[in-house]
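Running co-folding for uridine-5'-diphosphate.
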Amino acid sequence: MSKYKRIVLKLSGEALAGNQGYGIDPEVIQSIAAQIKDVVKLGTEVAVVVGGGNIWRGMAGSAKGMDRATADYMGMLATVMNSLALQDRLEHNEVETRVQTSIEMRQVAEPYIRRKAIRHLEKKRVVLFAAGTGNPYFSTDTTAALRAAEIEADVILMAKNNVDGVYDADPSVDVNAKKYDELSYFDVLRDGLGVMDSTASTLCMDNDIPLLVFSIMEEGNIKKAVLGEDLGTIVRGNK
Ligand code: UDP
């Protein structure tokens, strides 16, 4: 039995790149699509926010002298490419989907309309929220938090490709780094833990949206997360 009625799954762009580090790895995206299908079969309503870091990051562009807002719009467009790729794989696996974009491109996808998104979810279609929030200076983590609040999702499942939870130090550098089982948003903000950016954390904290950080590298983990099995780090509350 699914622990949650409605979830927002946040996939970083890098999760789609697999070991190649750039672009979209066909095997990886197929594996993610199959895992999402398993969750849909449980009856869970699934919304997905995909990042764009495997193609373009606004900060990187602006560091090289590009206007930040322009670089961020490019990042948002990158998330549309990823969302279309995931939509393609999901449909290939016979999962009904809709992509909604925060920047209108009607030939490609529906514009984001909250009530329509909720209707799709009720009909058990997977809704992919693309083009971030539509605003530069934001991230797709913030998009996940915002959309989760808007559609009244029960949880944000943050699937990571390089770490299996939240640690007190970078586990790839410090062998003594300790993983937390549970944290509050206040802990995350106070200790500057690299879970998500502070805009996203604050939005989750203020709106009481729990967040589960876990690894997507092990196949089947998305389903385990939805079933409420013990994995990753849960972040909630403000104390
Ligand atoms: N972005 C933006 N506004 C948003 C969401 C994303 O400007 O609301 C841009 C920003 O430049 C960001 C890029 O899109 O660097 C890709 O998103 P993100 O870095 O969140 O992707 P991820 O790290 O999850 O792959």
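Result summary
Residues 104 and 111 are 5 Å apart (CA to CA).
The mean pLDDT is 95.
Job closed.
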